[in-house]
Amino acid sequence: MKTALPFLETDTPARRVRVWFDGAPLDLPEGMNLAAALLAAGVRVFRHTPVSGAPRGPFCMMGACFDCLVEIEGVTRQACMLEVTEELRIGLPQAGEGGHDEG
Ligand code: FES
Predict the structure, then answer these.
(1) Gap from CA of 23 to ligand 1 centroid (Å)
(2) Dist CA 30 CA 10 (whole Å)
(3) How many CB atoms lie within 10 A of CB 68?
(4) What pLDDT, in 10s, does the model give residues 17-28?
(5) Cα–Cα distance for residue pair 26/37, rounded to 1 Å
(6) How far apart (Å, rounded) are the C-alpha atoms in residues 61 and 45?
(7) What burial class does residue 43 get, using C-beta atoms within 10 Å of its C-beta: 0-12 exposed, 13-18 middle, 19+ buried?
(8) How far apart (Å, rounded) are the C-alpha atoms in residues 77 and 96?
(9) What pLDDT, on the 0 to 100 scale, is given for residue 1?
(10) Which atom of ligand 1 has the smallest separation from the CA of 63?
(11) What number does the ligand 1 atom closest to the CA of 65 have?
(12) pTM: predicted TM-score of the whole model, two decimal places
């Protein structure tokens, strides 16, 4: 059964640029909020909690929850605070990096 994505793209077409998430290529709209673009592309797990390894994905979309943490060029950052730019190489943060330790 196919389920519809909860995020729809706007009517204004944006140039798509190639980024890499956990080694897989994705073509995302340039300039779009990175967390929203990844969610729209079907990415659901952005990191795992350091204690239990539970999966986490964006929740607040305003920089408060830290559940959207990703690693870009060796730096752990909040995806909801970034825009899509060409050739971003996005990885899952290493266990124990950043975020709230909520198990
Ligand atoms: S989604 Fe909450 S900090 Fe990014």
Answers:
(1) 22
(2) 13
(3) 27
(4) 999 999 999 999
(5) 10
(6) 15
(7) buried
(8) 14
(9) 54
(10) 3
(11) 2
(12) 0.83
